[in-house]
Amino acid sequence: MKVAVAGCCHGALDKMYETLELLQRRHNVRPDLLLCCGDFQAVRNEADLRCMAVPAKYRHMQTFYRYYSGEKKAPVLTVFIGGNHEASNHLQELPYGGWVAPNIYYLGYAGVVRFRGVRIGGISGIFKSHDYRKGHFECPPYNQQTIRSAYHVRNIEVFKLKQLKRPIDIFMSHDWPRSIYHYGNKKQLLKMKSFFRQEVESNTLGSPAASELLQHLKPTYWFSAHLHVKFAAFMQHETNTKEELPKATKFLALDKCLPHRDFLQIIDVEHDPNAGDSLEYDAEWIAILKATNNLVNVTPSSWNMPEKNGLHAKWDYSVTEEAIKEVLEELNHDLKIPCNFTLTAACYDPSKPQKNMEPVHTINPQTTEFCAQFGLTDINDRIQQAKEEGSGRGECEEEEEEEMDSTGSAEEPSEYNTDNSGLSSFNPDEIMLDEEGGDEDLSTCSVDPSPDHPPEFSTSFSDIRIMPDSMAVSSDDATDSNNEELDKSGGSKQGEERSSTERSLKRIGGDENGNSGVKKIKRRNQAIYAAEDEDK
C-alpha cells in the first residue's frame, strides 16, 4: 500500500491534492492514503480564523472551506493530526476524532485507527510543560492564553497512548520527539538550521512527551513536521527481555507545503490485502478510551496520571483481550467508521465576507454519537455544563486558572524538568511566508535520494520523494538527556517566543521578556519573530 505523508499543510489543500494528481499523471503513482502531520488548518469561515494563534496578517482563508462545503472532495482518504496553527474551535468539536469534511479525518487529541490492516496512531498539538498536566478546559471564545493552551498536549492523552500493547505501524506527532536528532545526520541538520545548535547541543529540542511515546510504542514509522525542515533518523530500540525481538523506528520529519519544497513523501507499507478500503476504529484503542473515561478532566487544575507510587489504587489501564472482544461484540465486528460528517458552522462565502463573525462553542453530532455508542464523556458537553452551573471554568478566566492551580492536586514538580519559559512553545507563525533563500536545501535529509525520484515538478508543485526501503543515517552521537522542548522545535519557526540568542533560537524566558538578542533570524522569519505572539 502506498502512503503519502505531508508536513505542515497550512490550509493549502488544493496544492497538496494537485501535487498528488500530478504525481499520478507523470509517474503513475497513486497513493492509497494521505497522512498530514499537523498545521492542517481546517478553517471553515472568518470565525475560525480568529481562533488560529497566528499574527493577524497570516490569517488567510486558504482552501479547506471548499472541501467543507462540498464544492470539492479530497481525492484520497486523508488522516491528520492537529498542530499549533489550527482553527482550534473546529478541532475541539472532535476530541475523539471525526470527519472535518468528506474523506478527511481528524484523529482527535490522540487516537488510533486502522486502514487496510495498518494501525495508525497520532497525538495532536505541541508540548508545553506548564499546561501538560491540565485538563482540556478551553472553549471559544478564547482569550490570549487559551487560544494557545488549547493546542498544548496534555498528560492524559500520553497516558492513554501508553496503555497500548499491540504493535503500532505508523505514528504521527506535530513536534519532534526530543533527542531524535541524535539518530540522524545531525551535522546536516545544523548546516541547514544552524539556529537549532544550542537546543540540539543541550538536548532541549523536541517534545519529551513524544520521546516517551516513541520509546514505549516503538512504531515502525514515526512522522513529524513543525520545524519546517526535512530530516530522517533511524532509532534502534533496546529490548526489555531476551525473548523480545529487536525493534526499530524509521523517523521522518517533513517540510511545509510550499513550492519547491519537498513536503510530500511516498512510502510503501505492508498491509492486509483482504482488508476493506474503509477507515476503521481500533478495538484496543476504543477499549482504552472506555477504561480511562473516569480520568477525564475539564478544569485547568494540574494533576498527575495514576502511577505505581503507592498513591493510586490503580495505575495500569491497559486492557485485556476480553475487553477488546467486548468492543468487537458491541460493534458486531463491524469496525468501519461511519461516514457521518455534518456541517456545524456556516461556510465561508467569498462574495459575502463576514469579518465580524464570532466563534461559538459547538457540540458536534459526531462526538455525541461516538460518546453515546461507547459510553464516553463528551468533553465539550461537560465544559458547557460547567459554564451553565456558573463555575466559569469553561470560560478560562485567568483568575480561575490561578485559583484552580492552587486547589488542584498537589503541585508536584513536573516529570519534565524544563522550566516554563524555556518550554514556552513558539508556535511557528511562519505560515505562508515567501521562501527567500536560505532554506532551499531543507529538503535534504539523511535519506539518500531514491534512484526513481521523480524529476523536478513545475514551479506550481512541490517535489515528491519516494522513500527507500532503508534510511541511511549517520548517528553522530546518541545522548539521552532530559529536555522537552518540542515547541522549541517549533520555536525555530515559531517565531512567537523565539527571542533567540545569537544563533540559536532558544526560547527561554527571555523570549517573551524581550530577551535582547533575536540573533540573526532568517529574513523570512523576522516578521514573525517580531510579532508579540508568544505561545506561552
UniProtKB/TrEMBL annotation:
One of its GO terms (biological process) is mRNA splicing, via spliceosome. It is found in: Nucleus. Residues 386-395, 485-510 have a biased composition (Basic and acidic residues). Signal peptide: none annotated. Its main location: nucleus. One of its GO terms (molecular function) is RNA lariat debranching enzyme activity. Belongs to the lariat debranching enzyme family. This is DBR1 enzyme. It comes from Bombycilla garrulus.
